[in-house]
Amino acid sequence: QYNVLIENGILKGYMQDKLNARLMGMTPTGNGRRESYAHLPMPRMTNTYMLPGKSTPQEIIESVEYGIYAPNFGGGQVDITSGKFVFSTSEAKLHE
Question: pLDDT per residue over 28-40, tens digit each?
Fold first, then answer.
Protein backbone atom coordinates (compact mmCIF):
# COMPACT_ATOMS: atom_id res chain seq x y z
CA GLN A 1 0.00 0.00 0.00
CA TYR A 2 1.36 3.41 -0.98
CA ASN A 3 0.80 6.49 1.13
CA VAL A 4 1.64 9.51 -1.03
CA LEU A 5 2.95 12.33 1.16
CA ILE A 6 4.14 14.85 -1.44
CA GLU A 7 3.27 14.91 -5.13
CA ASN A 8 4.62 17.49 -7.58
CA GLY A 9 5.82 19.57 -4.63
CA ILE A 10 2.38 19.63 -2.97
CA LEU A 11 1.53 18.04 0.39
CA LYS A 12 -1.02 15.31 -0.38
CA GLY A 13 -1.20 13.18 2.76
CA TYR A 14 0.07 12.32 6.20
CA MET A 15 1.41 9.28 8.02
CA GLN A 16 -1.26 8.30 10.53
CA ASP A 17 -1.64 5.78 13.30
CA LYS A 18 -5.10 5.13 14.77
CA LEU A 19 -4.85 7.72 17.55
CA ASN A 20 -3.53 10.61 15.47
CA ALA A 21 -5.92 9.85 12.63
CA ARG A 22 -8.86 10.02 15.06
CA LEU A 23 -7.58 13.28 16.59
CA MET A 24 -7.21 14.84 13.13
CA GLY A 25 -10.49 13.42 11.78
CA MET A 26 -8.61 11.45 9.11
CA THR A 27 -8.30 7.83 7.98
CA PRO A 28 -5.47 5.77 9.52
CA THR A 29 -2.71 4.93 7.05
CA GLY A 30 -1.21 1.99 8.94
CA ASN A 31 1.90 3.88 10.01
CA GLY A 32 1.65 3.15 13.74
CA ARG A 33 4.82 1.57 15.10
CA ARG A 34 6.40 1.09 18.52
CA GLU A 35 10.02 1.82 19.28
CA SER A 36 9.81 -1.11 21.72
CA TYR A 37 7.18 -2.87 23.82
CA ALA A 38 7.67 -0.14 26.47
CA HIS A 39 6.55 2.67 24.13
CA LEU A 40 3.15 3.62 22.74
CA PRO A 41 2.68 3.38 18.97
CA MET A 42 3.31 6.56 17.01
CA PRO A 43 3.34 7.43 13.29
CA ARG A 44 6.57 6.23 11.75
CA MET A 45 7.80 5.62 8.23
CA THR A 46 8.09 2.21 6.67
CA ASN A 47 9.89 2.24 3.31
CA THR A 48 10.19 5.67 1.75
CA TYR A 49 10.48 6.08 -2.00
CA MET A 50 11.27 9.25 -3.89
CA LEU A 51 10.40 9.22 -7.55
CA PRO A 52 12.55 11.23 -9.95
CA GLY A 53 11.21 14.50 -11.28
CA LYS A 54 11.83 16.18 -14.62
CA SER A 55 14.32 18.80 -13.41
CA THR A 56 18.04 18.18 -13.20
CA PRO A 57 19.77 18.74 -9.85
CA GLN A 58 21.41 21.86 -11.33
CA GLU A 59 18.02 23.29 -12.40
CA ILE A 60 16.65 22.73 -8.90
CA ILE A 61 19.65 24.42 -7.28
CA GLU A 62 19.39 27.41 -9.63
CA SER A 63 15.67 27.84 -8.80
CA VAL A 64 16.35 28.13 -5.04
CA GLU A 65 17.43 31.48 -3.56
CA TYR A 66 18.41 30.10 -0.15
CA GLY A 67 18.57 26.46 0.91
CA ILE A 68 20.62 23.42 1.77
CA TYR A 69 21.63 20.86 -0.85
CA ALA A 70 22.13 17.37 0.62
CA PRO A 71 22.81 14.76 -2.08
CA ASN A 72 22.71 11.87 0.42
CA PHE A 73 20.84 11.47 3.66
CA GLY A 74 20.16 8.72 6.16
CA GLY A 75 18.06 7.90 9.18
CA GLY A 76 15.97 10.61 10.73
CA GLN A 77 13.10 11.33 13.05
CA VAL A 78 10.22 13.74 13.37
CA ASP A 79 8.51 15.40 16.32
CA ILE A 80 4.88 14.69 15.43
CA THR A 81 3.58 17.51 17.63
CA SER A 82 5.58 20.28 15.95
CA GLY A 83 6.46 18.82 12.55
CA LYS A 84 10.17 19.46 13.15
CA PHE A 85 12.46 16.80 11.73
CA VAL A 86 16.12 15.86 11.69
CA PHE A 87 18.15 13.55 9.50
CA SER A 88 21.81 12.77 9.04
CA THR A 89 23.84 13.49 5.94
CA SER A 90 27.46 12.87 5.02
CA GLU A 91 27.60 15.95 2.79
CA ALA A 92 25.62 19.20 2.65
CA LYS A 93 26.12 22.56 0.95
CA LEU A 94 24.53 25.90 1.81
CA HIS A 95 23.12 27.61 -1.27
CA GLU A 96 22.57 31.39 -1.14
Answer: 998 888 888 998 8
What does the alpha-carbon distance between residue 94 and residue 71 come to, in Å, rounded to a whole number? 12
Q: Where are the domains of the chain?
A: 1-51, 52-96
Asked whether the beta carbons of 15 and 4 are under 8 A apart, the reply is: no
pTM over 0.85: no
Instruction: Judge contact between 53 and 40, C-beta under 8 A.
Output: no
Hey, what amino acid is at 42? M
Q: Are β-strands 76-78 and 10-11 bridged in parallel, bridged antiparallel, or unpaired?
A: unpaired
Helix (H, G, I), strand (E, B) or coil at 63: helix
